[in-house]
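Tutorial handout. Part one gives the primary structure; part two gives the three-dimensional structure as tokens.
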Amino acid sequence: MTDTSIGTRTLGTGDHALEVSTLGLGCMGMSEFYGTRDEDAAVATIHRALDLGVTFLDTADMYGPFTNEQLVGRAIAGRRDEVQLATKFGNERNPDGSWVRINGTPDYVRSACDASLQRLGVDHLDLYYQHRVDKTVPIEETVGAMAELVAAGKVRHLGLSEAGAETIRRAHATHPVTALQSEYSLFTRELEDDVLPVLRELGIGLVPYSPLGRGLLTGAVTRETLEDGDSRAAGRFPRFEGEAFDANLALVEQVKSLAADKGVTPGQLALAWVLAQGDDVAPIPGTKRVKYLEENAAATDVRLDDADLARLQQAVPRDAVVGDRYADMSSVNA
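Part two.
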């Protein structure tokens, strides 16, 4: 039985609106990037998510690569009607994991969608994102091909990930965009300048990934806790390196103090902050363990008043975080 007490939120407007659970589940780390994998534990986590009403599941073909979609498909078998299923295309990889390119060509859009449907074992996707913008292909051509998938019944709603304001406008003019997925948290707020106003103007929802700062804002991540093979320890994310890491951990200590005062965990406080940014915001914190899933879901019960928000703003000023989000920022905000 599903307990939907965490509620729902609506991404997009009108005929292109999609109702999702207030909090979603990012499934990437179940297959790659964040240390060891345990598929049985991952499936159990997804099942527990559905039972808690966390029904907005996020994957992508590149995770694994390809194996994360298969894992999610296995987990939702027999429960498809409970799920708002989102996946992504565009970061093209070979089966051995090697990088090919960012690919937004219409033929690739069509073939990638068919492959994702097969791996997931479903006949349609609720939300299909372009994972990164292909700067060599006009966005109108990519979104035009995505619109064909909607017309064919393979996809219900369209999304973009890490797109810039002008790209979003052009895409939305080609076919209504339901959601933008971008990194957004107490530690990452740049989209507030140009992107978020455009989303609000056009009626597009925001799906923040890494709303816990890739785990930093839980207070549980240190140099000692990062496992071998964890991409956060491999130079991909400058915020986890050297003096930047030390400076960012000092900010986390401030969050931990405020969380203790409020009687919640640091992660719950950080998620509550994201949730407080608008009813059109549905974050997708990732986890591969039931324990942390349950902790995250409980964040939907945390209410922040103006004083709480002001204290968080003072503790973590918008520009206080040290280091870029990625070592290579060329494909974000494109």
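Part three, for discussion. The longest strand covers residues 84-89. The mean pLDDT is 94.
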